[in-house]
Fold:
Amino acid sequence: PTNFGGSPTRTVSWVVDDGSASNHASAAGTTTVSVAAVNDAPVVANAGNTVTFTENGAAVTVDSALAVSDVDSTNLASATVTISGGFVTGDTLAATTTGTTITASYDAANHRLNLTGADTVAHYQTVLASVTYTTASHNPTNFGANPTRTVDWSVSDGALSSATQSTTVVVAAVNDAPVVDLDGAGAGIDVGPATFTAPTAVSIVAASALTVTDIDNQSLAGATVTITNAQDGVNELLAVTTTG
Structure:
């Protein structure tokens, strides 16, 4: 009602007329009405869409259609973008602030992108529409338990914050190959030679040194152990214990 502070008062003029042909109207009297504005919270709208991020792919824009408004303020003071659901270590939010006075910083501990600095509503909308999601995790769905992220949006005029709106990011995992390490020296490194003296079988590797891992799978489907330079394909044998 104050037109962003440009019209803080109203002037009311009073005139009475007796209706005579000579139009006997009174002189005008005036009253001043001071308008005390009550702050309205800014609004985030048009959130709620769903976007897909593919593991190892480029960062994805979370919600380019996001709209920001404030009916009684031309500036905003801050905004937050938070991964409120499905977070996995390695997740990151970022924004482009070029051409604005807005500063962006990502708080990894709270999964939150903080935008600060007094700037126009239009600039905040542009920056929020540029927010991207990516993850450095090679197990971004947490073995299928976290297939999506919920991203919450909120803006503030310095006194009041908007109601929270949410966007969904679907995470498409890309399978990583399992890894076998025979001697604790890294995958692909050969262990030292095992000596076989007939007829007693010899363990090829030390069980305490061999490790098998798969960063994004808790089960394996199979394994092979092959003699690549066998001298006697009939009598040279490999065996394994599968007890338990």
Observations:
- The first helix runs from residue 121 to 129.
- The chain is about 5% helix and 35% strand.
